[in-house]
Amino acid sequence: MFEHFNNSVWHAFWVLVPVAVIVFLVAFFSLKKGCWYFFDPKHNRDESLKKDEGTFEAHSARYQDLAKLVITLSGAAIAFIIGVLASEKTSVTAFIKKVEATAPIAVGFFGSSIAFLVVFMVLQTVWYEQYCHSPDHSSYKRWKYAFNMCLGWTGAISFILGFAWLARNLFKS
Questions:
Q1: In a domain, 8, yes or no
Q2: Per the domain annotation, does 120 fall within a domain?
Q3: Phi, psi of 141 (to 5 degrees)
Q4: Residue 103 within any structural domain of the chain
Q5: Dihedral of alpha carbons 138, 35, 140, 41, sign
Q6: Which residue range(s) make up the domain with 110?
Q7: Partners of 141 in beta bridges
Q8: Which helix (H) or strand (E) holds 168?
Q9: How many domains does the structure of the chain reveal?
Q10: d(CA 127, CA 72)
Q11: Which of 26, 63, 71, 113 lies most in the core, judged by the most C-beta atoms within 10 Å?
């Protein structure tokens, strides 16, 4: 049933769109309605929270470092797949045939992972800058939080799906 589903990079799109929608909806509806979110704990008006917790920059660096790692590994996976397909061999082994069969969708997953995570990093940076320069720090709305969560998690899920799809197709008998 799924043998022809590997034939296009765009098939990854059909898997990832529902995943992204579900992640966005879960993130969006798990948040309080009608409010904004503070990047920095020191701006929170809740008295039970410590005001000297600092800024979001340390957290942002961790998130962006993880995104950079996944982007690097996704790029390396794409390079590996292309290298296997581009190598000139006189005899084509069963392994190469399996890579050829699953390469389009796997490249789609890894490429999508790169795209989602680059947009995640850019929007996180842009929205944090807007937040820092907003007089009352109310620019980070519910939909922005959910959308950024959607981008980050869908990028990570796409990366995992790329390797899972590749492994499933390479190691099945």
A1: no
A2: yes
A3: -80, 170
A4: yes
A5: positive
A6: 22-28+55-171
A7: 36
A8: helix 142-171
A9: 1
A10: 24
A11: 113
* Distance (Å) of CA 126 to CA 60, 82, 139: 12, 34, 11
> For the segment 104-145, what is each residue's pLDDT rounded down to a tens digit?
899 999 999 999 999 999 999 888 888 777 777 677 788 888
Residue-wise pLDDT tens digits, 152-163: 999 999 999 999
Residue 30 exposure: Cα atoms within 13 Å on the Cβ side? 11
Residue with tokens 């197709």: 169
Examine residue 83 and state whether it is found in any structural domain, yes or no: yes
Please state whether 44 falls in left (phi above 0), alpha (psi between -120 and 50) or beta: beta
- CA-to-CA distance for 72 and 50, rounded, in angstroms? 36
**3-state SS, residue 36:** strand
Per-residue pLDDT tens digits for 95-106: 788 888 888 899
Q: Is the pTM of this model over 0.90?
A: no
